[in-house]
Fold:
Amino acid sequence: MFNDDDDDDNVIQEFTEVEPVPAPRVSNWIAATFALISLTVIIGAFVIEAGIQREPYYDEYIPRTPVQAELLELDWIEQIFLDINPFSRPGIYLEEINGIVIHNIGNPDTTALQNRNYFNNLQYRQHRFASSHFIICMDGAIIQCVPVDEIAYASNIRNYDTISIEVTHPDETGRFTTESYAALVRLTAWLMSRYDLNSTDVIRHHDVRGVITDCPRYFVNNPDAWIGFLRDIEIEMERQSQ
Structure:
């Protein structure tokens, strides 16, 4: 006669007598290595997202024009070039210079270095194209972000034949500080003399054909201040030539 209870006992007995197969064991050092790699990736992601300062671009740079070679020797301009990337420094050769475009930074009360880092981080964020050849800080310091023999993304259709200068400012009026204004006059006059330009070749971003913008805001809203700036750069050119 078939006994269900006896049969169940036999099955249980047979099951309990079989030793379980041990699970594969990973060495402690391998586990630690994977943990370290994971932590590094996570930290790296936070660094990129937060825009934390990275090491400047120090790959060997050889200027393609005498003007850029001279710029490297000036002690009043600091070169912190952007990394070559599609979003802010494409590395496209600028074949001619027919003008200089003046801009104001879109974010009041920020430094030149902060804005330089913003341009550099566009290669990671990949949501817009923007940069400038120079950024002037409110204390008068000048950072060069893009060589003058390369294109910067600042002036729309004039990117391909102009040099762009961005200037920081303390508030929404866009008015430059005394120090940043003096630095702008000095730099603009210096570039004008190197490229054989005159004051009619210096324009506001607002003046670029097809562009609707009030940049640089203070000069757009105060035309007399713009006329005064053009006069000041002509005077500075004469001073620098002596």
In short: The beta strands are 78-79, 99-104, 134-136, 142-144, 162-167, 202-204.
